[in-house]
Amino acid sequence: MDHTHREFVCEAQSLQRSSDAKLVDALQAMRNHCASHFARQDGSMSETDMPGRDYHADERAAVMQSVDEVRQCCARARASLTSLSPAR
Fold first, then answer.
1. pLDDT for position 3
2. 11-15, 54-58, 74-78, 79-83: the lowest-pLDDT one
């Protein structure tokens, strides 16, 4: 497994260990990692004119959409919970 994939595993482990309060930040870190990895991957695929590149790009876009949807859902839930918390 190459360095980028080891980094992904670290991000995923961080996400798993994340507290509720840090979940949105951990999801953002995972999104940033995926976006960077996918951009490098797309560049390599373009340079080598890899067959199936369009399909792979569609799959990467679906992953990014899923990460964004989960991150937005968690952010909304956190905002809702914050609004319900008693004033200090």
1. 86
2. 79-83
What pLDDT does residue 86 have?
A: 63
Q: Angle at Cα 15 formed by Cα 18 and Cα 30, nearest 5°?
A: 135
Whether the Cβ atoms of residue 30 and residue 15 lie closer than 8 Å to each other: yes
Number of residues assigned to the chain: 88
Cα(19)–Cα(75) distance, integer angstroms: 13
The C-alpha angle with vertex 61 and arms to 55 and 66, in degrees rounded to 5, equals 130
Alpha carbon distance, N-terminus to C-terminus of the chain: 49
Domain extent, residue 49, equals: 3-84
User: Residue 15: in which H helix or E strand, if any?
Assistant: helix 3-17
Place of tokens 């992904």: 8
In what helix (H) or strand (E) does residue 48 lie, and over which residues does it extend?
Answer: none
> Residue 24, exposed/middle/buried by CB under 10 A (0-12, 13-18, 19+)?
buried
Question: Domain tally for the chain?
Answer: 1
